[in-house]
Amino acid sequence: MVTRIVRGFSSWSRPRYAPINWRLTTTLPAPTFDTGCTFCEPTFPPDKQINFDQPLDRSGAIPTKHVMSLTTHDNKMDEFPSRIEDWQGTLAHEVKQLKAQIPLAEGVSVSSIVLDHHQSVLLRYGVTKSSDQLVFLYPEMKAIKFDIRHTDQFMQKYLSSPTPHKVYNPFVKSTGTTEGRAKIAVDDANFTEMELDKDLIVTCGQTERDIRCGILGPLITEEFDKVLTQEGLRHECYVGQITHIGGHAFAGNVLYYPRHCESSRDFIWYGRVFPKDVQGLVEETVKEKKIVAGLFRGDLSRYEK
């Protein structure tokens, strides 16, 4: 790997951490203070109510690898179109256009995020040109900067599925399944890998996709900002909003990716989160690494002992 320095970051070299010892809890502490909207009760259109009936266990399509793009045309989630992959000039659109030639590995998901103090984060990671792309890659825990012209190389290097080994069988005709794969030469010098050194907490807030997310996303994001500040943890977390992840009826949808991610087992997806739940989630999940079972959209059986 080529060593490069960008605004105080060296080329990425991930330290080793012990796996997170996730535990399950069935309780969520009640809030102990009011930030100003802790007890807000948002209302929703009659045909866009929150689904409180369906169990959340295994309701989320949690990826095995998650790409979070921080670079879009602007930084206003409420102005994003319904389908980010159809928005020309975004990384999601470029990936969609190239998937036929460079198939993604199984379980890869590409999202866009808008963080609090978004421009400061971009500058911190050395994003200075309109063509620069910055992504957070999980569970590899890399911040990666590259030019959007090299999206094909990005996909080949970080996201592509392995080329199947061909086994000769004279009685079977070739299906041609690998003939369409592009042969992409990757120049490692086109990519700068940097340390991803904070927890990430994002809430689905894509208004144009579903109004429930549009209503709850900003409220929950602001509540996390205030609660983490109150707890002295704000400098340890990136907080913001994310594009569609599925399950609008379970809004608010909150994703917590700790800085010590080792695998998708460390991707904690919650549903039916309201501002009043944030203090409890900070205490139980962010601080204590406990999964609140009643809100968890993953597979609870993965964490049972």
Describe the structure.
The chain is an alpha/beta fold. The chain has a single domain, classed as Glutaredoxin. 18% of the residues lie in helices and 18% in strands. It has helices at residues 91-98, 118-124, 151-159, 211-230, 278-287; strands at 23-25, 65-69, 108-115, 132-138, 142-147, 192-195, 199-204, 237-242, 254-257, 268-270, 290-292. Helix 1 (91-98) links the parallel strand 2 (65-69) and strand 3. Residues 1-8 and 174-178 have low confidence and may be disordered.
In short:
The protein has 305 residues and is an alpha/beta fold. The protein has helices spanning 91-98, 118-124, 151-159, 211-230, 278-287; strands at 23-25, 65-69, 108-115, 132-138, 142-147, 192-195, 199-204, 237-242, 254-257, 268-270, 290-292.
**In the CATH hierarchy, what is the architecture at level 2?**
3-Layer(aba) Sandwich
CATH topology: Glutaredoxin
Number-wise, the strands total: 11
SSE ordering = EEHEHEEHEEHEEEHE
Oligomer, anyone? single chain
Shape: globular
Major pleated sheet: 9 strands, mixed
Q: Which key phrases capture this entry?
A:
305 residues; alpha/beta; Glutaredoxin; nine-stranded mixed sheet; two-stranded parallel ribbon; 11 strands; 18% helix; 18% strand; disordered N terminus; Altered inheritance of mitochondria protein 32; Thioredoxin-like_sf; Aim32/Apd1-like
List the helices and strands and how they pair.
Elements: E1 23-25, E2 65-69, H1 91-98, E3 108-115, H2 118-124, E4 132-138, E5 142-147, H3 151-159, E6 192-195, E7 199-204, H4 211-230, E8 237-242, E9 254-257, E10 268-270, H5 278-287, E11 290-292
Parallel strand pairs: 1-11, 2-3, 7-8
Antiparallel strand pairs: 2-4, 3-8, 4-5, 5-6, 7-9, 9-10
Organism: Lodderomyces beijingensis
Family: Belongs to the AIM32 family.
InterPro entries: Aim32/Apd1-like, Thioredoxin-like_sf
